[in-house]
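Design a sequence for this backbone.
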């Protein structure tokens, strides 16, 4: 693989870690363990049974916690402490041919993970204003699907995955912005003094 391919894969892994860090780490480790991809030296630790077991158990816990309105937002708040460092590590480890993590790659990975995490957490917080839980279940299942499908696509066709991730991020940001505007307009109208 070229350096450009590795850079794209690192950015994609950081983006997915911002949404589902444990599932991303589990997927990378499993792909390496099964021989689907040759992992760089710094990512080989994800193939250990300890990392696979821990990330798998935490991914399962996140699967259920993320389906409950309110709990999902609290989980997202706490997971900021895991998703951003995981994204930084995955990006830097992907770009490290000798196992040494570069500061620039760590910063880029952290920034990408923080952006995708912020978009995910913000959209889920807006969904929690809806009284019905179906929208949370649908959003959570969509996030699970995006990460699993994104991992497969990132390994097979990283450039296509990058285009889809950028497009999905822009569409998601625009949707969150539009919903926020609709809600704030509704709140202003609700509390506006009556016209005389």
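Sequence:
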């Amino acid at each position: 693989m070229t350096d450009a391919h590795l850079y794209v894969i690192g950015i994609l892994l950081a983006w997915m870690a911002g949404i589902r860090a444990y599932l991303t780490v589990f997927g990378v480790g499993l792909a390496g363990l099964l021989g689907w991809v040759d992992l760089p030296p710094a990512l080989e630790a994800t193939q250990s049974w300890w990392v696979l077991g821990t990330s798998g158990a935490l991914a399962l816990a996140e699967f259920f916690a993320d389906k409950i309105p309110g709990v999902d937002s609290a989980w997202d708040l706490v997971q900021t402490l895991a998703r951003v460092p995981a994204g930084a590590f995955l990006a830097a480890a992907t770009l490290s041919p000798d196992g040494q993590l570069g500061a620039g790659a760590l910063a880029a990975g952290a920034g990408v993970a923080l952006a995708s995490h912020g978009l995910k957490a913000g959209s889920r917080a807006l969904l929690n204003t809806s009284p019905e839980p179906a929208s949370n279940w649908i959003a959570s299942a969509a996030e699970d699907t995006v990460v699993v499908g994104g991992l497969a696509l990132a390994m097979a066709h990283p450039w296509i995955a990058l285009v889809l991730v950028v497009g999905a991020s822009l569409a998601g940001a625009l949707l969150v912005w539009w919903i926020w505007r609709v809600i704030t307009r509704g709140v202003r109208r609700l509390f506006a003094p009556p016209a005389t």
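The CA atoms of residues 11 and 136 lie 27 Å apart.
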